[in-house]
């Protein structure tokens, strides 16, 4: 057995059917999985990154960026749904890659998912702290600015971000069922506030804020007039700053907002009826959130000029102030905080399940798959409570968002490839849900994801390369020698 050895589908199905002590508890019904997806999807990507992407990249056309990102997610989501119904095992894309592309690729994607979920948690925690401070101002209290920002943004440390990560990690350690109940309540609250924002804000839209809908990109104009070649444009500072290139780059940035259905697949082993529940949870949460996202982005950029959102970590509060409904401001802030909280909770849960699966396969130390009496991988939760807290306390939100986006797109690309491989190598295996129009849907998923990856800043690629290089060192130094499949 070598680095490209694969786990058999039979063994994965047997693992999924394990129950009792030492296994993850069956907790989630179909609507619980939808709530899990919505809980992860609606958060910082909507409440913070929408404003950032509008100000720096797409202008009002950030609504189109959400459509493009959702399209890529739809293709990848259909592929995820087939895998999740067929292989309802914790680990998401890591497990699917192990069964189709082999251990080495599985390690890479598992290591990538760790980056995705950990940094997603940190990203949201940074935004959470800003809104928490806004809530304190209502009661005439305020946290000093140096304790709301990391050293790279002129502060010292982001204390509220660290505190919320620690509290939610402790909740996950206490139990999955308790965490699911808290998540369901938070999801109801934040979906309500999104609908209220759209309904009340729509009547205050200023058409002038949507004109032009796609701001002019100086580089694109130079290409049209022959002053710059297309090749030079792609490497110039103009690429991604408004125009259609800005719409594409914004799609890559806000793609971060859609990773919720990925988190649903990590909980497959804890679903009561995964064959039906997983496709329902993945596709259902994606459809609900896409509709809300596009409407929300349109209203946000209609209430306030997109340039106002530059450097603003709380654009929703800034835009909603235009409505004059000041008595709802506090309720809006409270609900956004609740929404952010559910995102951090689901991301931390997803990350721990990926590490749990990798540890079960011997690729990581056994401690990461040790379960408490409440059937939670508590040691993993403790380790990442520390790891995520460090990122949340010291790293800027925009840098974190780009890193999560490229990691997510990479994972989605491999899942789409996995469907093509499995349809070829094992065409007769039972598939409770089948991705339609194969190979068209997976191929389109790969193309859209790669386009958005290319549109992201070079720094994102460099950081991903460094993270994967570190992962390769760990794989060849430890994981390859301790792999249960290879031994």
Task: Kindly describe this structure.
The protein has 20 helices and no strands. With 487 residues, the protein is mainly α.
Strand content: under 5%
Rg computed from alpha carbons, rounded to a whole number of angstroms: 22 Å
Query: Sheet bearing the most strands, described?
Result: none
The structural class is mainly alpha
Order of SSEs, N→C?
A: HHHHHHHHHHHHHHHHHHHH
Keywords summarizing the entry:
487 residues; 69% helix; 20 helices; mainly alpha
Overview in brief:
This protein has 487 residues and is mainly alpha-helical.
Topology:
Layout: H1 9-16, H2 30-41, H3 44-47, H4 49-58, H5 62-86, H6 93-100, H7 103-138, H8 159-174, H9 176-202, H10 218-225, H11 230-235, H12 243-254, H13 260-266, H14 274-303, H15 315-320, H16 329-360, H17 378-394, H18 397-425, H19 440-455, H20 458-482
Helix pairs in contact: 2-9, 2-13, 2-14, 2-16, 4-12, 5-12, 5-14, 5-18, 5-19, 6-7, 6-18, 7-8, 7-16, 7-17, 7-18, 7-20, 8-16, 8-17, 9-14, 9-16, 12-19, 13-14, 13-16, 16-17, 18-19, 18-20
């Amino acid at each position: 057995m070598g680095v490209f050895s694969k786990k058999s589908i039979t063994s994965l199905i047997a693992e999924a059917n394990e129950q009792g002590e030492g296994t993850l508890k069956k907790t989630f019904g179909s609507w619980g999985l939808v709530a899990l997806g919505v809980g992860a999807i609606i958060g910082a990507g909507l409440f913070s990154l929408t404003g950032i992407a509008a100000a720096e990249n797409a202008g009002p056309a950030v609504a189109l960026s959400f459509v493009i990102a959702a399209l890529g997610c739809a293709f990848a989501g259909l592929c995820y749904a087939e895998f999740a119904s067929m292989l309802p095992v914790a680990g998401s894309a890591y497990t699917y890659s192990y069964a189709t592309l082999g251990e080495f690729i599985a390690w890479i994607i598992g290591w990538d998912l760790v980056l995705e979920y950990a940094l997603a948690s940190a990203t949201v925690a940074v935004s959470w702290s800003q809104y928490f401070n806004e809530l304190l101002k209502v009661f005439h209290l305020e946290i000093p600015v140096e304790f709301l920002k990391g050293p790279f943004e002129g502060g010292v440390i982001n204390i509220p971000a660290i505190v919320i990560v620690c509290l939610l990690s402790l909740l996950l350690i206490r139990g999955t069922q308790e965490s699911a109940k808290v998540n369901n309540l938070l999801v109801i609250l934040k979906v309500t506030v999104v609908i209220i924002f759209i309904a009340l804000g729509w009547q205050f839209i200023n058409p002038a804020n949507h004109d032009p809908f796609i701001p002019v990109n100086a580089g694109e104009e130079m290409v049209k007039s022959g002053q710059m070649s297309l090749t030079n444009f792609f490497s110039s500072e103009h690429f991604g700053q408004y125009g259609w290139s800005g719409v594409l780059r914004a799609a890559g940035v806000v793609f971060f907002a859609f990773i919720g259905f990925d988190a649903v697949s990590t909980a497959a082993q804890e679903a009561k009826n995964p064959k039906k529940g997983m496709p329902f949870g993945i596709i259902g949460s994606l459809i609900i959130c896409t509709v809300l996202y596009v409407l929300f982005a349109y209203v946000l950029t209609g209430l306030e000029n997109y340039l106002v959102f530059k450097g603003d970590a709380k654009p929703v509060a800034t835009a909603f102030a235009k409505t004059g409904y000041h008595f709802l401001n506090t309720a809006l802030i409270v609900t956004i905080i609740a929404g952010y909280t559910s995102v951090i909770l689901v991301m931390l849960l997803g990350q721990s399940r990926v590490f749990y699966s990798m540890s079960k396969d011997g690729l990581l130390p056994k401690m990461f798959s040790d379960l408490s009496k409440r059937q939670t991988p508590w040691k993993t939760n403790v380790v990442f409570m520390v790891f995520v807290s460090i990122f949340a306390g010291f790293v800027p939100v925009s840098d974190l968002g780009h890193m999560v986006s490229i990691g997510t797109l990479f994972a989605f690309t491999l899942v789409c490839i996995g469907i093509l491989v499995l349809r070829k190598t094992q065409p007769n295996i039972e598939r409770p849900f089948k991705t339609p129009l194969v190979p068209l849907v997976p191929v389109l998923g790969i193309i859209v994801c790669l386009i958005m990856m290319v549109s992201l800043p070079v720094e994102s690629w460099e950081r991903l390369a460094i993270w994967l290089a570190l992962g390769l060192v760990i794989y060849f130094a430890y994981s390859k020698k301790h792999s249960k499949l290879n031994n």
